[in-house]
Amino acid sequence: MLLSYTTAFVFLGVIVAISIVKTLLPTLHNPLNALPGPWHTKLTNLRLKLAVLTGRRIHYIHSLHTKYGPYVRISPTEIAVNDPAGNKHIHGVGSNFEKSAWYNDFTVMDRPTLFTMQERRSHAARRKLFARGFSRSNLKTNWEGVIKEKVELVVRKVQEEAGRQGGKVDLLKWFTLMASDVSSHLMFGESFHTLEQGEVNEFIRVMTLALKGNGIGAELPLVRAVGKWLPFKAVRELWQTNEILDEYARVAVRNMKAAGGGKNIFANMLAESEKGEEGALDDRDVEIEATALFIAGTDTTAVSLTYLIWAVLRKPDLRIQLENEVSTLPEVYTDADTEKLPFLSAVIEETMRLYGAAPGMLPRIVPPGGVDMGGFYIPQGMTVTTHAYSAHRDPEVFPDPLEFNPRRWLGDEAAVASMKAALSGFGSGARSCLGIHLAYTELRLAAAEFFRRCQGSRLAESATPESMEFENFFLIAPRSDRCEIVVA
């Protein structure tokens, strides 16, 4: 025998002890130790990952901010920041905080999209190309008619279904169909016509799975890798979506090249690309960007619009005030007309504060040399992440932050300016979401049309605060996956 059992066990014990010491020593001298947070975040991120798996990430992070303050350690290498000055430092124009590797893991595509691009120059060139298509002027000139048509159709469909079902309808279903028809028309050049069919198609079903799968897989790559091979179809489908998404994406390229050049929002971008402009798009770029933008523009709008109406219907005084205001619109009105309605604008701002569909993490890497923020030194290479969910519930900025109170946006100008500066549901700075004008156009037109045509509507008994509690897999959605109302 080479070694006695006693010697072998001693030898093994020494190896284990050395391994433990090697694991613990870095934690003893880590500059992040000065930051407040649970003791276990010095050693592991397992508690954070459990929150990710259960759709409770934003809730968990917010509970830590509530307990420990605006700067809190959430893993051995990650800090959550909920401080207006810190947010500006990280995301402001000219910031040298780069996107973290999380964005690589978030995408299911074989190339980065505008959202996941990490390299700053490439992102700036691509954003410049896209900015023209998503500008307010281009949307109003070329696409407002399409949006208005879908908005009017969804309200008619809601009324028709209510007539067949004793008044009860699921708003989340119908607004998902509306948003998908708008997005498919703009991104792919042809509507999915789900409003006419009254049900989601395979692309939308797969898109919903992809969003949930990406939200989990970005933070737990091992779960995604293993999940693809498990003998459970419902689990495998979370990470086997590329083939169906690609099939629809090819439609965007075909329509972009169609005669007339106005079939989708990418048509003019292609013309610029053919001039050799930096950030130029090839066919594959169009495929992946169309898919990514469709995903970004569908569930987000549907969820926020659903929560808007749910929140207003919970308070009859708000419903009556909004109904009275939208009743002043002309019979044939435009988005410009809705922009002039102060209470509608306030309702939308308050909805985006409390119920914006993407209130989760925006992780960035601390640049070389490290930074001092909030009285703490954070070394280079560490991850700092902000969450709109917590920023929008900061009592220092939003008094009585959990209360849905649109009238706060109609008060003192200085207070309103401070609140607007704190809103980050569409990101901040040079990396902010280009789809903001499209989203607000849909929200204004759809909310105005609903409260004009469906006056006196109320929540169904099933639409409780418990049923509407957030589930968070990057985006939010009601845990019940529905929101039933009774249309008058």
Molecular structure report:
With 488 residues, this protein is an alpha+beta fold. It has one domain (29-486): Cytochrome p450 (Orthogonal Bundle), CATH 1.10.630. It has 21 helices and twelve strands. The strands form four sheets. It has a five-stranded mixed beta sheet with strand order 1-2-8-5-3. Strands 4-12-9 form a three-stranded antiparallel beta sheet. Strand 6 and strand 7 (376-378) form a beta hairpin. Helix 13 (242-256) packs across helix 15. The longest helix has 31 residues, at 283-313. The radius of gyration is 24 Å and the shape is globular.
Which CATH-level-2 architecture?
A: Orthogonal Bundle
Give the tally of β-strands. Answer: 12
- CATH homologous superfamily identity: Cytochrome P450
What's the gyration radius in Å? 24 Å
The assigned structural class equals: alpha+beta
Strand order of the largest sheet: 1-2-8-5-3
The number of distinct structural domains comes to: 1
Biggest beta sheet summary: 5 strands, mixed
**Poorly predicted sequence stretches spanning 5 or more consecutive residues:** none
Q: Ends: how far apart? A: 87 Å
Total of helices: 21
Q: In CATH, what is the class? A: Mainly Alpha
The whole-number mean of residue pLDDT values reads 87
Proportion of beta-strand residues: 5-15%
Helix content: 40-55%
Could you tell me the CATH topology label: Cytochrome p450
Name the quaternary structure.
Answer: single chain
How would you describe the shape?
globular
Features:
488 residues; alpha+beta; Cytochrome p450; three-stranded antiparallel sheet
